[in-house]
């Protein structure tokens, strides 16, 4: 009986030990898999945005030599410019595509706001992808998502170029709805041209105020500095053949001629804008690629790349410091989509290796490395 009892106890002990080991090993494996998964998610969905955008800095406007010693320089206005967010709608928008790309833009925008603290943000058109055929309810839903993604503190102003007004004047910026520049006499076109002519008159009056005071009427003059023109469509250019840089159009596409009123503004509309406003700088979007072009008497136009992974692998935005007489621009890159996808693929491979090692279908890399090291030492 004692032997039986002893053997019974021994058997029970074996059963207890045997049944206790697998859950412990499985729990340890689950802990490792969970830790790897959460770490990768935290990095790819949050930390990578801080790691990339923290390297961006506001460009400094140099003080002219002849104005030094005349008191503190006028502080520069810090403005962010982004373009072509293309929020998907209910018709063509797949839920996974919307979730992935909209989360990317939201995290990029919120991180940039927190790190860079701009005073004003301009979005250069193509905010929505399906605005032409959205129903009233779908449009309301899209606007609600936009307001959530691009939420901002009260002290930061957000301006969208193609908004309720065709033409607006904000600080030293003139915002033009490019769709209203078709020049075909439509109601919106006629109204936009009338507003542009009035702004042109006020700007010219302000430039001549020093020599002919009192000519600006009761409304008073606008700032005497040359404005910055903001619009969605670029001014007329034949193609992107002279554009360069990593975020320019692919080489195979740069020589393709642009179509007036579709890819770029018409020559006539471009001439009018340059003549009426005489801007010191033009910022535009629409092409999804970066480009710098000189117009007329050396007026620089900067095409801002798309802000969304949906349009390019390496999105970015423009940072600008502006004074009444000068400006400086800098580009801030965002995380690349292929970097995030590669990280996820590497993490998935790591999870597979951990699982195979646990199931004893694959030797532990540490053991393999140790054995190789021992063999190397013995030889």
Automatic annotation (TrEMBL):
Compartments where located: Endoplasmic reticulum-Golgi intermediate compartment membrane
Span of domain Calcineurin-like phosphoesterase: 78-289
Transmembrane region(s): 29-52
Gene Ontology cellular-component annotations: endoplasmic reticulum-Golgi intermediate compartment membrane
Principal place of residence: endoplasmic reticulum
Membrane association type: Multi-pass membrane protein
Cofactor: Mn(2+)
Any one GO molecular function term: metal ion binding
Domain of life: Eukaryota
Pfam families recorded: Metallophos (PF00149)
UniProt keyword annotations, A-Z: ER-Golgi transport, GPI-anchor biosynthesis, Hydrolase, Manganese, Membrane, Metal-binding, Transmembrane, Transmembrane helix, Transport
Quaternary structure and interacting proteins, as annotated: Interacts with GPI-anchor proteins (via the GPI portion). Interacts with TMED10.
Family recorded in the similarity comment: Belongs to the metallophosphoesterase superfamily. MPPE1 family.
Role according to the record: Metallophosphoesterase that catalyzes the removal of a side-chain ethanolamine-phosphate (EtNP) from the second mannose of the GPI-anchor protein intermediate. Participates in the glycan remodeling steps of GPI-anchor maturation to allow an efficient transport of GPI-anchor proteins from the endoplasmic reticulum to the Golgi.
Annotated protein name in UniProt: Metallophosphoesterase 1
